[in-house]
Known about the structure:
Blueprint: H1 2-18, E1 29-34, E2 39-45, E3 50-56, H2 60-63, H3 69-86, E4 93-95, H4 104-114
Helix pairs in contact: 3-4
Amino acid sequence: MAFNRKTFRRNRIKMRVRKVVHGTSARPRLSVYRSNRDIYVQLIDDNVGVTLVSASSAVADIREHLGTKIEKSALVGKLVAEKAKEAGITTVVFDRNGYLYHGRVKSLAEAAREGGLIF
């Protein structure tokens, strides 16, 4: 039963954040999804409903990296920043997707900022 309450709470927070956060082609939404094992990130244009760039820790280069999940999420942040630069994207809107800005989510966001994304 606690699992249902936990997901309900996260979805409620997610909807509260999504009322404000909206991605465009000029400034896409950087959406984070965190599973128990991996972390996924997408740059989304909400006007068209298209994913422009994506990255995850399930990629072979990051999967083979020995380290903590926080270190791997920092690598994902750098990877998404590189892909965004290649696509010509410099500014984004950060969507933490109902997760606390702590741990893996914070590590990913700081690494993306170091990689050159502005948010």
